[in-house]
Amino acid sequence: MPAINLTPAQRKEKRSEAHHLDPVVLIGGEGLSPAVLKETDTALNAHGLIKVRVFSDERATREEILARLADELNAAPIQHIGKLLVLWRPVPPKEKAEREDRKPAPKTVKIIKYSKQGGGRPEIKKVTVLGNERLTRGGSIKRAKTRATSIKKRASGG
Q: Are strands 107-113 and 123-129 parallel, antiparallel or unpaired?
């Protein structure tokens, strides 16, 4: 897979975003092993923009690692400064599992009722609010009303 090509302005913007980041992946004496590639791919999927620290004194080796990471992981090489490499790849959209049978879960809510006299202790109560209920301003629980459908929708059968 070829590396992503960015314009110099886009690369500059990514460099400024990566400035405060800490290295997420560390590459030691073994070099680029399959485990390191997998971990870098996972970090790119999670963060999009990552720093990689290479513990090698040879600049040519670090440049080769940056090029190989960019090619194999379909990422854009942003920067190589010292022993730090910066890579970017767009974060894939996360799939949200939508279930039809799912309903809102019950919540435990703490209700605090202050006393009418200034110096009295407040009354604290823990109440479980179900998915079809709501809490009023006064601290009581009311069942949520079913949503009214319009006359036009009822007539059309929707």
A: antiparallel
